[in-house]
Amino acid sequence: MTSSLEEEKFFEQLQPGLQSIVFEAEHEEEQRKFLEEDYLRASSEKLDELERIKKNLENRDLEQSIKFRRELTSKIFRVIKIWLGFIGFIVLLNGAKGCGIPLTKTVFNWHLSDNVMIALLGTTTITIIGLFATVTNHFFNKGK
């Protein structure tokens, strides 16, 4: 029995020390949980901020892309109009020679053969359609 009394006294002497160790362990666990929560909260806030920045950059990129598309489409349309105007002018001059207009006989004394006119009109038509198809396919493609 003396050994069990000695063991009890020994454990009684150890109990305050064990309680402080358990208290410190619990306290460390609470601190660890608090730090984890604080870290997760800070990480979440940082992630939200990064998401806002990403969205902002995407919106700015989309606005610039739309502006660029409008400008480039306008310029291409202008080139097509000038090109077609020039071709129309050539066709009119070529056809006006036989109309009996005096100016066409003296100032514009030239005539294109039928084969040249067919080639000119055919290549112009194909080029205009190809340019239009390329621009619309590239700039307005929905499946990016």
Quick description:
The protein has 144 residues and is mostly helical. The protein has helices spanning 2-96, 102-106, 114-139.
Question: Topology, pairings included?
Answer:
Blueprint: H1 2-96, H2 102-106, H3 114-139
Helix pairs in contact: 1-3
Explained architecture:
With 144 residues, the protein is an all-alpha fold. Helices cover 88% and strands 0% of the residues. The protein has three helices and no strands. The protein is rod-shaped, with a radius of gyration of 43 Å. 0% of the residues are buried.
Features:
single chain; 144 residues; mainly alpha; 0% strand
Q: Provide the succession of SSEs.
A: HHH
Quickly count the helices. Answer: 3
Compute the CA-based radius of gyration. Answer: 43 Å
Q: Describe the biggest sheet?
A: none
Low-confidence stretches: none
Secondary-structure-derived class: mainly alpha
Write down how many β-strands occur, each being a DSSP E stretch of 2 or more residues: 0
Shape: rod-shaped
Gap from first CA to last CA: 87 Å
**Average of the residue pLDDT scores:** 78
Beta-strand residue percentage: under 5%
Q: State the helicity in percent bands.
A: over 70%
